[in-house]
From TrEMBL:
Keywords: Nucleus. This is Transcriptional regulator family: Fungal Specific TF. InterPro entries: Fun_TF.
Amino acid sequence: MLQLQAEKSQVQRIAAVLFAVLSSRLELQLSDTGSVVAHILLVFTCSACRFIRSRAGRFALLPPVSAVGFSNTAFKRQRCLDGCCRHVTPGEIPSYDYLAHAVLGLGASHLSQHGNVDYTSQALQHRVTAMKLVNEQLDHPPTKPADQDALLAAVICLVTQSSLMPDSMIDYITTTRGGNLVASTIITDYEKSIFKYFTPMEHDRSLERLISEQPRNFEAIEGFLASARRLMPLCQKPTEISYCECMIRCIDNLRTSCLDAWREFVILFILPTTFNNQDFMEFVDYENHTGHLLIIHMFLLDYVLGNACLSKSDEPEYPGRKFVIINWMRDLARRLPSLYEEYTEWPLEYCSVLAERDARYLLSP
C-alpha cells in the first residue's frame, strides 16, 4: 500500500511538471493549455500512471500546483486545468502511448535535476519507449490534426528532456532535427493545430514582445566573438563554415541590436535541420571535434544572448538546463585531444562565470 501511494505521489509530481512546462514555457492560450494537459494525462498507461485516474472513470485532479513548488503563473492556470478535466472522461480521448512515455520521461528528468531524488533510470526507460513509438508513427504519418499535435508534443518533450540529461548534446541536435521534420512535413495546417503560434511569423512577433534591451556584458560578447573566430580555421566542410559564420554574425549583431542577434540565432539553431543526411551525420559524428566545438558554442551563445536580451524577470525558475550544458562543455574539454585545448579555454572560463550567474536563455526547450 505504501509503495502504491509513493507511485501515485511520484506521478502527480511529474504531471505537475508537465503542466508547468506547457503553461509557462510554450506560451499557449489558457484554454489550449488545459486541453493539452488533460489530453496527455488521461492517456497514461503504465502501472504508476493509472492512479492519476479516478475509479469512477473521471479525471483525478492534481494536487495544488503550489504544493509542489511551481510558479505563480502555473498556479493561476490550475483553474483552467480543473475546469477542463471535470468534463472529460478517458474514453473520449484517443490513446497516445508515445506521448505518455515522453511526458513521463521529461518529468522524471526534471525532478532528477531539480529535486533530491534520482529518477534517471525511469527517465531513460520512458525515453527509449517514447522514441521507439514516435519512430513507428513517423513510418505512418498521422492525418488528423489532433494526432499530428500529439506527435509534435511528444517530440518537444523529447527535445526538452535531452537538455536535462548528461551526454545528450548530440541527442538534442538530432531530436531537434526530428522535430523539424514533424513541424514542417506532418503538420500541414497550423490554423487547426494547438501549435498555431509556432509558425515563423508568430515566432517573430513573440520575439518582439519578449526582447528587452539589457546592459551589455561586452567582455562576454568580445570573448565569445574571439573564441568563435578562433574556430574558423578548423572548419573545413561547408556545413561547418556556414555554421561558424552564422554564429559570428549573431554575436556581432548583439553589439547593436538584440532583435537582429536573436533572429540570427534562430537561423543558427535550425541550421542543422537543413543539412542533408550525410552532411548532418558527419557534422555530429563523435570524432568530428570541430563540429562538437561549434555545437557547444551555440549552447553557450544562447546564454550570452539571454543575458543581454531578456529582463531579469524572465529568468527560468529552474536552472537545471544551464548546469547540464556546463557539464557538457567540461566533458567535451576532457575528451578532446590536447591540441584542441586552446579552443576550449574561453568556453571553460565562461562556464565558470555562468555557473554563478542567472540562467536566462533565449529558446525553449
